[in-house]
Write the structure tokens for this entry.
Amino acid sequence: MIFNQQYEDREYPTSIAVLGDRRIENVKMYRYLGSEIRFDEHTTGETEMNLRSDAAECKFYSLAKNLLNMKINVKIRVNMLNSLIRSRITYGCQTWSITKTQLDHMTSVYMSFLRKMTRGGYKRKEDSWSYVLTNNDLLRISKTIDLVTYVKEQQLNYVCKVVRKDNKSITKQLMFNSDRSRKTGPWTTLLSSVLKNENCKPDDLFRRIMELPK
């Protein structure tokens, strides 16, 4: 696979390597450590997001007998949801570089699960398409945090861990790599996302990280 192919006017090659007398297929997509990677998605792309939501929904309905059982305390069911389903939605989220639209979609998937698990979750107001229970109501009843907050916490913790690494660390060097993509559109990285979430400059964030207890 050619990652982030820059020459869009060229046809994607079917092979770029030869083993003996056999040409090795150059695929456009493959799955690595549970993540879906495409040649033309230089950040966390739609392919990966769709895989995450599909995996979560499959697991949710396989456990629906317990998760939708209103006789079981909601706190127990939400703990199950977060352990077995939210973990699938947010798999690898500490390194995500996604847009607000993508994050909103994943949040919608998670909130739909909470709404199904809550009695009257899909009840609508009279003469309105609005639900009686808002998303904040669902989070309060479920005694859990929203997906956006969870993802931000995971990303901040990961950045803290990487910043504390030795400067020779490959992971640290990649995080602070200044190379730019030639593709059009806004440039979003994990580090820039964390800086935006924390509303601070790099030096301020690094100072805070180094002051935190290990």
Q: What stands out?
A: The longest strand covers residues 15-19. Residues 161-211 form one domain. Strands lie at 15-19, 22-25, 29-32, 35-38.
